[in-house]
Please model this.
Amino acid sequence: MLAAYARDIAMPSSAKTLKNPIRLSLYVQHGAMAHFADHCAVCHADNDSGQTMFGKGMYQKPPDLRQSRTQNRTDGEIFSIIENGIRMSGMPAFGGADTADDSWKLVNFIRHLPQLTPAEETQIESLSPKSPEELQEEKDEEQFLNGGDSSAKTATRRNGKGSLTMRRVLVLMVALGIFVGVAYAHNGIQHVMGTVTSITDSSITVKASDGSTLTVLLTGDTKYFSGTETITVKEIKIGDRVVIHATRTGDHLTAAEVKIGAMRMKGMPGE
Ligand code: HEC
Model:
């Protein structure tokens, strides 16, 4: 096959043994995550668009980068692919005068893809541009946290499959190899709003304005915020209004983020 042949000759044998000079740190992952969302997800994203763009011509489909085909390559090989592209395929070259660091970070990020956490999934969501719908939702949540009326809202809203934001998230999730297929059916980010009725180190139970209660699991990866400031789980009290962004696995909701109002921390009593 032509593309396969081109893939072999495009790779200098010295590439295999190149050493990655960048340490795999959280910081590096985050920078690379944004970079990936910008430059790579468009192709290494959802398999349908890959099909449309490349499946019909001589091009290879953009592969799922968390599979062994890619993961078994050396760091140097992946670096070389990013810098030089793959000739006679849809994979462009991203190399330039000053790109080596970015490319090595992308190598680190690709190494990390198979172990992405739910919290990181949420971070990826926040990296994609916001739709007007999502901005409105943020406003509603902010209002609720600061004591506003929530009677018009349902307790748990799941972003619809049709919403632009959710589609973007799903595209990214597929790109990053998160439960492809399952993602569409079950893996929406759920937004839970309510008043805390109990909280432990491993779960939080909230009561919504319609009287229903819901328990969400807390993990070591769960992040806690008061407004935009990071807090600890200990600072969340019974009676606090909270907004929880959670992912669903089977019957369980697991919190990626729990937010309380910024006002409460400044001394306003809870409800
Ligand atoms: C225009 C579409 C497109 C974009 C944008 C793109 N790729 Fe690719 N990529 C492809 C295609 C198509 C292939 C498969 C080529 C082949 O196998 O012949 C590929 C292959 C790869 C491979 C090799 C996979 C393997 O193991 O065989 C890596 C690694 C890769 N891309 C990383 C990236 C990164 C990182 C970015 C962003 C900086 C990116 N790609 C952007 C289309 C794209």
Remarks:
- The radius of gyration is 22 Å.
- DSSP finds eleven helices and eight strands in the chain.
